[in-house]
User: Fold these one by one.
Assistant:
Number 1:
Amino acid sequence: MESINQTIIEAQVIEALRTCFDPEIPVNIYEMGLIYEVKVDEAGAVAIQMTLTSPSCPAAQSIPAEVEQKVRAIDGVTAVQIDLVWEPPWEQNKMSEAARLQLGML
C-alpha cells in the first residue's frame, strides 16, 4: 500500500514530466504516452520506465537527462532511475486525447 508521501511525490513527478518536451513535438512527453510507468518507494526513490518515439530520436540523450534532472529536484525524492525501453514500441495510440487534439489528429 502506498503512503500519502509516495502518492504526493508521484503526482509531483507526473507534473514535472508534463514540463518535458521532445524538441520536435509541441506536446509534453507524458501526454505523448512516452512514460510507461512511474514508481515511488517508501524511501522516496523514483523509478521511471519510458520510451521515445523511435530509437533514432535525436533527443535520445537529452530527454532522459532532462527527466532525471527535473525529478531529482522534487522535494522528498532520494534517487532517480530512468529505464529507457523499446518494448513495447511507442505508437500514436498511446497519446492522450489532449495530445492528439493539440497535434490536430482528432
Number 2:
Amino acid sequence: MRQAALTVFVLVLMGFVLLIANGHREILDNEVAAYYVRNFTSDTGAGNAVAAIYLNYRMYDTVFEALILITSIIGMLHFFKIGGNK
C-alpha cells in the first residue's frame, strides 16, 4: 500500500513538472532556434544550418545515446548469462 501511494505521488509530481514545462516550451524553443539561426556559421563553420545542428550541436547527445545503448546491451547479456536455462 505504501509503495502504491509513493508511485502515485511521483506520477502526479511528474505530471505537474511536465505541465509547467510545457507552458514555457514555446518561449524556449523560439530562443534556441533564434540562437542556432544567428550563430551556426560562427559556432561550427558549417555552411548549412541543418548539418551544423546534426553534426556539431547534437554530437554529444548522439555519442552518449550510443554509450547508454551499449551499456544496456552489455548489462542484459550479463544477466542472461547468469540466469542460464532456468
Number 3:
Amino acid sequence: MKLSNATGLIDADSLIAPRDSAEPGRRSQQELRELATRAGRELEGAPAEEIVRWAAETFGERFCVTSSMADAVLAHLVSRVMPGVHVLFLDTGLHFEETLRIRDTVARTLPVTVRSIRPRLTVGQQDGVYGPRLFARDPDECCALRKVEPLERALQPYDAWAAGLRRDESPTRANTPVVAYEARRGKVKVNPLATWTQSDVDAYIARHDVPVNPLIRQGYASVGCWPCTRRTKAGEDPRAGRWPMFDKTECGLHTQ
C-alpha cells in the first residue's frame, strides 16, 4: 500500500487484512442492524448533511465513502462534515482517462484520502484465465471480478459505507433507503443523497464548484467502464447507457 504525498491517493490494491470481529470497540452484527434500522426510520427526510453527520459520529474511522468519480458531490459533502474521510475508488483497469483524472483531482484538492482499489487480476491476466473481452460475453462475471470482489475486500476494515445512490436515477433505485443494514456484507450502508434530484445535484455542484467528469457534459448520463458505457439519448433513463447490449443496469455493488 503506497501513499502519494502529492495527491493524497493511496494505491490500495493489496489484500486488506480483515479486522477481528471481537476487536475492542467494534460493534456486533446485531448492534449494527439495530443502529441501521433506527437511523433509517429517524433520518428519512433529513438533510444529507445530517445523515452524514450521524454516520461520522456513530462510526468514526470505520466509516468510508465510495465514488465512481462521475462527480465528486458525495466526497465533497462528506469531507465538509468529516475531513480526512477515506474515499474508495474501484480502479477496474477499464476506466475512461477522464474518470482517472477526476479521481486524481479529488485526491489533490479535497480534504479526503482516496484509496484506489484494484482487482486481483489485471485485465491481461483476466483475459488469460477467462478469455478476451469477458465484458462483452458475461458482463456480470466481469463486474464481479473487477468491482464486486474488490469492494468486498476494501470494505473489510469498515463498519459503514456511503454511496451516492439516488431514487430518481432508475426504477431499480426507486426504493433506496437513506440508511440500511446489508446482511450479506455485515455493514451499514448510508445513502445521504437518496432523496436528491438531478436538480439538487446540479445546484450543489454550482454552489461549491465540485469537480465533475467531463463525460457527463458530453452526453454520458452515467459513467462506468469504457467498454460498457455509451452516451444516452434525450428522454432515456440515465442508466440506459450502461451495458446497452444486455438486460443489465446494475454492476452488482448495490444489489443484495
